[in-house]
Amino acid sequence: MYFEVLGVTDPNAHTVVLSSGLGGSAHFWKPQLEALTKQYRVVVYDQLGTGRSPATLPMDYSIEHMSDELLELLDGLDVKQCHVVGHALGGLVAMKMALRRPDILKSMVLINAWSSPNPHTLRCFNIRKAILDTCSKEIFLQMQALILYPPDWIADNIATLVEEEAHLLKVFPDKDNLLKRIAALSTFDIENQIKQIQTDTLIIANKDDLLVPWQQSKQLDDALPNSKMSLLDYGGHASTVTATQTVNTILMEHLNCY
């Protein structure tokens, strides 16, 4: 699995692990790296079956598989404790880690995540699967942008977005792998386990998220014993990109408490 270790080299520095959403790419976190690498050892990685981590994923691929892959990576890097920042799918990975290996988590940050399937989100996934089956990769990426970003951000950043989509087209994941990852997201459900998670948790949600209703984050905040929530008015699903300064400020304030 492809990974990079960036930032502070002091062995006593805290480690921050960044885990992406459905796309699985380390590149997603570029807007956060300048702020984080000044103070922390930062681990980014391309999730298995995406980007620079080619693989054929098993038919029963799950969030549990993804958490095991990240834990194996961290064990290989001799990381004893870390903060995990997860966006959407990455947040689900963090919660599964908190259930399986709570000792390795100093804290977790869940950005537009959820604890069980939601009818609205499932419909969005069904549309994406239909586009994969019937349309081009270019159309899939255009639909993805509509899900990730607010309309005004797309209008103001269209040149950057077109350039990014050209890059994503070159590294577009294997269709079968992508469908297996969507299936893993669609079936993730830890409602009967969520109260067992004792990890200190920061939840970030967006009122204008088109993919994951912010109430899913509120549900997480109500269920998790040691959580706090920051609800943003603007940013869409990918507020790490569209509201970078706001998200980075919230993230750094959380991490600097340790």
TrEMBL record:
Gene Ontology BP annotations: nitrogen utilization; uracil catabolic process
Catalytic activity: carbamate + 2 H(+) = NH4(+) + CO2
GO molecular function, one term: hydrolase activity, acting on carbon-nitrogen (but not peptide) bonds, in linear amides
Domain AB hydrolase-1 residues, every copy: 15-125
Name of the protein this chain belongs to: Putative carbamate hydrolase RutD
EC number: 3.5.1.-
Function comment: Involved in pyrimidine catabolism. May facilitate the hydrolysis of carbamate, a reaction that can also occur spontaneously.
Domain of life per record: Bacteria
Keywords: Hydrolase
HAMAP family: RutD (MF_00832)
Family, per entry: Belongs to the AB hydrolase superfamily. Hydrolase RutD family.
Enzyme kind, highest EC tier: hydrolase
